[in-house]
Amino acid sequence: AEKMELESVEDTLNKYIPPAELTEVKRILYGPEFLRTLQIEKQAGDIANNEDFELAAYEMPLSQNPRQVKIGLIQNKIISPTDAPVSTQIHSLHERISKIAEAAALSGVNILCMQEAWTMPFAFCTREKIPWTDFAESAENGATTKLCQELARKHNMVVVSPILERDETHGGVLWNTAVVISNTGAVMGKSRKNHIPRVGDFNESTYYMEGNTGHKVFQTSFGRIGINICYGRHHPLNWMMYGINGAEIVFNPSATVGALSEPMWPIEARCAAIANHYYACGINRVGTETFSNEFTSGDGKKAHKDFGHFYGSSYIASPDGSRTPGLSRTKDGLLVVAVDLNICQEISDKWCFRMTARHELYADAIKQSTELDYKRDIVYENSLSFLH
Amino acid sequence: AEKMELESVEDTLNKYIPPAELTEVKRILYGPEFLRTLQIEKQAGDIANNEDFELAAYEMPLSQNPRQVKIGLIQNKIISPTDAPVSTQIHSLHERISKIAEAAALSGVNILCMQEAWTMPFAFCTREKIPWTDFAESAENGATTKLCQELARKHNMVVVSPILERDETHGGVLWNTAVVISNTGAVMGKSRKNHIPRVGDFNESTYYMEGNTGHKVFQTSFGRIGINICYGRHHPLNWMMYGINGAEIVFNPSATVGALSEPMWPIEARCAAIANHYYACGINRVGTETFSNEFTSGDGKKAHKDFGHFYGSSYIASPDGSRTPGLSRTKDGLLVVAVDLNICQEISDKWCFRMTARHELYADAIKQSTELDYKRDIVYENSLSFLH
């Protein structure tokens, strides 16, 4: 029996805390209460009702000189069971996401991003290669990219599509890759996951290696975007390089479960938005995925067939330190947020983190620290220093 | 009339949310509920009552092989008015902190850290030099260092004492400096603030410049410690270098007010603890400080004599992603936390952020990004690329 999952921290706060204190608690936990809830467009709301997914829409604070774009994030469960034919599993997700994308379009979304490896269950816990490697596709002309090109053209929308990529040109190896598709339908390029976990069930280095596409930023019609996939959110330098390359929005398509990471989830993307003066968008899948064959988790516990609850909770953090509420912890959802890209430079000019960053100093310090004969700068008490 | 300040977010959650949901809300917001409240030692509690400061004590989760030390953080208001003679102001703070240090010693604290520039009001908003520069002292043998040496010897306690430093050896210039004093009473050295704000009332570059002591880590009898002063908490690379040099505990003595930074406060030190596998300790002063002469804040508002409420809320974050509750937003306080330093390596081995960090790559990337002719890695849509 699955345990009853809490629906949302924000809903719980709203439900129990009296208004005067609630305003102050939310200011401290989530940032200034300037976030405006947007009216849901009727047709979009109908799709959300019919298809049973959450649709939440907000507008973040505006600068004097707004350059507003609408971001859409999709979080979802898998549809078909994990032992259905691969083509069935992919097809059912293609259908589902196409419908949610339509609601996004009706809500005026300009840039839409799906969750990590969105066409498949997150099966890397199994350490089996077949059938999971059969989910891999060409980033440039796989079926999923073709679908996203159609969606992009039809809805005049930039689509960021994170998939398991097979790179035929270079030995047919696999990558964890986000494909970026322009609102014209053209494939602009791809961005690979830069940091690969070796943590418990996340045996992903069994399947693919650290990305070699660096920290590209894509100049779309609706702003400059970067993609920091999943475990890369634990690496501040990874976040930083997207900022250095000019990103105004960085997506973090993820797959992560409660016991492992949930207290870190509200912290890392939000800290990146603050430190780098851009919007950071955390997307996590939802639900529990069950596999045919049992596997172990490197934690001394018995073999089992699922590895816990993906807790959704997708959100957007602003460079001003505030954030939106999270989507549900249990339901599919579409988060629509109007953001003002001009806030990025405005906050940068206010806080001056880039100006005061002293990057020259750190480039040298980090370089030195990677040398095999690096001596750490540790101070010992004078009288004892000869001992060391 | 000063507005009524919320006492503490955690108290409000505890007061209103029913137990079952509260456990889940706190797990998500603050990390696993393994934090144990420690019994307050009777004599320490008496001092706290008599002297009217909050005393809170916790034990964080233990590894199989614990190496436990007790950290103490002090947050406080100034005592004398800001127009009292400088020596009176300093003396009153010396007395007050000595008493709180005694309660820390009675609570078994091994390493004690005071707030930023703890011997003075945070007067840098005024942009006046006199009398504020008269608060500056020698790090090696000023009166405040001498007091801290006595406290250290008397209580067998490492003392971290952040002061305004005057460096007579190098032209008598000022620095924002933390002095590290061994439990033997010896001055181990000093660590200067690496990043200086130019934000609103925080005109600190008027008084002192970016520190030149790098990211020293001090091997004390109770673990390796580093000090990242105030605005340095906005800089992930600054946090990182203390970790690279082997810090197990990094203190962040600060002075920061609500309107400006409060939603960032629970995020940044905690993110640093997660990213760098060490304990991070945020300390912020408390109360509103009023000055004789009015000043402006660069925000279009009228001249005024105070710049808002320092919100305290000092806390400790663990490498496991959890954190303690914050001290009061309104009262002086002593936070005593028993931490297990062995957790640092254990969590590092679990999450592998250092192993997967790819620092060689980033050292080069950051170096290149500082070149005057750096070209950002921006991808344009193919058909339009000739335009750029």
From TrEMBL, chains A, B:
Any one GO MF annotation of this record: beta-ureidopropionase activity
Keywords, ordered alphabetically: Hydrolase
The protein's Enzyme Commission number: 3.5.1.6
GO biological process, any: beta-alanine biosynthetic process via 3-ureidopropionate
Pfam families reported in the protein's UniProt record: CN_hydrolase (PF00795)
Catalytic activity annotation: 3-(carbamoylamino)-2-methylpropanoate + H2O + 2 H(+) = (R)-3-amino-2-methylpropanoate + NH4(+) + CO2; 3-(carbamoylamino)propanoate + H2O + 2 H(+) = beta-alanine + NH4(+) + CO2
Pathway where this protein functions: Amino-acid biosynthesis; beta-alanine biosynthesis
Enzyme class: hydrolase
CN hydrolase domain: residues covered: 69-341
UniProt similarity note: Belongs to the carbon-nitrogen hydrolase superfamily. BUP family.
PANTHER family: BETA-UREIDOPROPIONASE, NITRILASE C965.09-RELATED
Name of this protein: Beta-ureidopropionase
Organism: Ciona intestinalis (Transparent sea squirt)
Upper classification of the organism: Eukaryota, Metazoa, Chordata, Tunicata, Ascidiacea
